[in-house]
Automatic annotation (TrEMBL):
Coiled coil: none annotated. Keywords: Hydrolase, Metal-binding, Zinc. Pfam families: RMMBL (PF07521), RNase_J_b_CASP (PF22505), RNase_J_C (PF17770). Residues 198-296 form the Ribonuclease J C-terminal domain. It comes from Candidatus Fonsibacter lacus. This is Ribonuclease J. It comes from the Bacteria. Residues 2-93 form the Ribonuclease J beta-CASP domain. GO terms for molecular function: hydrolase activity; metal ion binding. Residues 107-153 form the Zn-dependent metallo-hydrolase RNA specificity domain.
Length: 299
């Protein structure tokens, strides 16, 4: 058995009096003492989990198990939608080292990890639940499970959605309230929502880059020195890259001429206009609409 969760599940099964007629698996560290053609390794990571045993074996970082040319790796599981990229990387890592990969794509070997309908019938006959709340699968799967539970005589099969609060007793189960739900991200030391403006800004910067322009304004309302231009993560062809700062300086100077720089009430409109004009220039040159920050510094 290779992988901590695989070993943990095996130990729990033994404690519950299962697998008693199966010989105790050898420690993976002792496998080197046994001929390879006499060994089968059961590994965690059938869905491409990066830190699981199988991924580490594939990329050659597992401390105890290393495969060689013409060894066989058998995936009896199916690829769960969404895991294709991770699993294909593992398949390719094995193929690169001439290790054979057998899966449902090229062999009739799939074994489901989910109980079949007859298995569920047995479970319901043993447990005899009064209330059923399906929580796994897509909406159509849960609707089918509700119908199946009714066939099995479950008194209260209840379909609930994310965030709904279900009261189980007294009386019939009933949805009594709803709470806000969704993904949250640990950003440094702070939890933020998926629709946080911080994430939107970061995604924008990742996709389009960042531009900052600082304009120095003297006491008499004149621009002092050339604007200071900073560009980050904006792709430009070589001939544009050498001229872009000069072009931006021209845009800033031309825009500022249309405003009274002594009038602080016009400052917000000036900043918004500078952002739009500078972003348009970058978009014309690179096809990107960067996050723009304008600093007006009065001396």
């Amino acid at each position: 058995l290779v992988g901590r969760s695989m070993n943990r599940i095996y130990q729990l099964a033994r404690q519950c009096n299962y697998l008693q007629d199966i010989k105790v698996p050898i420690d993976v560290r002792d496998a080197k003492k046994i001929p390879k053609n006499k060994m089968v390794f059961l590994c965690t990571g059938s869905q491409g989990e990066q830190r699981a045993a199988l991924a580490r074996i594939a990329n050659g970082t597992h401390p105890d198990l290393h495969l060689e040319k013409d060894d066989n790796v058998i995936f009896s599981s199916r690829i769960i939608p969404g895991n294709e990229k991770r699993l294909f990387k593992i398949f390719n890592d094995f193929s690169k080292n001439d290790i054979n990969v057998l899966s449902e794509e090229n062999s009739m070997i799939h074994v489901s990890g989910h109980p079949a309908r007859e298995d569920l019938k047995k479970m319901y006959s043993w447990v005899k639940p009064k209330i059923l709340i399906p929580v796994h699968g897509e909406q159509r799967h849960m609707a089918e499970h509700i119908s199946f539970a009714k066939e099995m005589g479950v008194k209260f099969p209840v379909k609930v959605s994310n965030g709904e609060i279900l009261r189980l007793a007294p009386g019939e189960p009933e949805v009594v309230d709803k709470v806000t739900w969704g993904r949250v991200y640990l950003d440094g030391k702070v939890l933020i929502d998926n629709d946080s403006p911080v994430l939107k800004e970061r995604r924008n910067m990742a996709a389009n880059g960042y531009m900052e322009i600082t304009v120095l304004i003297s006491k008499n309302g004149q621009i002092k020195n050339n604007p200071i231009v900073t560009l980050k993560g904006i792709p430009l062809i070589e001939e544009d890259a050498s001229e872009i700062e000069y072009d931006l300086e021209d845009v800033v100077m031309d825009t500022c001429k249309t405003f009274n720089l002594n009038n602080s009430k016009q400052e917000k409109n000036l900043i918004d206009t500078l952002k739009g004009n500078c972003r348009k220039l970058i978009n014309d040159k690179s096809g990107k609409k960067p996050l723009v920050n304008i600093n007006l510094v009065r001396l």
